[in-house]
Amino acid sequence: MASNKHLVPEAKEAMNRFKMEAANEVGVNLKQGYNGDLTSRQAGSVGGQMVKKMIQAYENSMK
Predict the structure, then answer these.
(1) Cα(7)–Cα(33) distance, rounded to whole angstroms?
(2) 43, CA 20 to 30 Å: which among 17, 27, 53, 59?
(3) Residue 25's closest CA among 56, 46, 47, 55?
(4) What confidence tens digit (pLDDT) does each residue in 29-62 have?
(5) How far apart are CA 2 and CA 47, in angstroms?
(6) What pLDDT shows up at residue 63?
(7) Longest distance between any two alpha carbons in the chain, whole Å
């Protein structure tokens, strides 16, 4: 079951900034609040970019 709850509530704003940054990098125009008008492809590209950046940050931390 998917959940939108953050384990660390204080991280919510940082996650929103991260999402906006990832969306900007892949050319998706996100708005504050509701973005239900995005296509699945656009939403997936934002999520994929976020995962890519998280993996890259983890790999860099292991060096």
Answers:
(1) 20
(2) 59
(3) 46
(4) 999 889 999 999 999 999 999 999 999 999 999 9
(5) 15
(6) 83
(7) 40
